[in-house]
Amino acid sequence: MAHLEWQDTLHALQAGPMDAAHQEFVTLTNTLADAPDEEELACLTQVFVHCKEHFAQEELWMQASHMPSIENHMRDHEGVLTLLESAAADLRAGQHGAGRELAESLAAWFGRHVATMDAGLAFHMQQATRSAKPGIPAVG
């Protein structure tokens, strides 16, 4: 299975906590891609927990900084969580490989999501921080 490779030129947004969470996502997704059948569900669960926490943090940043298009970004997050839940249900039903297959799809999703939605969020937050609005968290 092809692995998701972290590339600073593509993935680093100069947004400290966001970049760290994205690097963790890459590691967890690659671990899932390589998981043997007996560890696949546990690895998928780790990806799910990570995504749920990371997405919740991003959504707090979006709300605090009054990010435009928050609904589209949140829908993209919800779609990934739904796919993760569906793959977990398949694994619990004995359909080995569902998590590994999803890991490949997550790799493609990640590149698009970071380059568009997360890059926009990082830029918006960096601009909001520069204008020194109270209550806007810094990410860079």
From TrEMBL:
NCBIfam families: hemeryth_dom (TIGR02481)
CDD domains: Hemerythrin
Cross-referenced InterPro entries: Hemerythrin (IPR050669), Hemerythrin-like (IPR012312), Hemerythrin-like_sf (IPR035938), Hemerythrin_metal-bd (IPR012827)
Keywords assigned: Iron, Metal-binding
Pfam families found in the cross-reference section: Hemerythrin
Family, per entry: Belongs to the hemerythrin family.
Coiled-coil boundaries: none
Name of the protein in its database record: Hemerythrin domain-containing protein
Occurrences of domain Hemerythrin-like (ranges): 18-121
Keyword Metal-binding assigned: yes
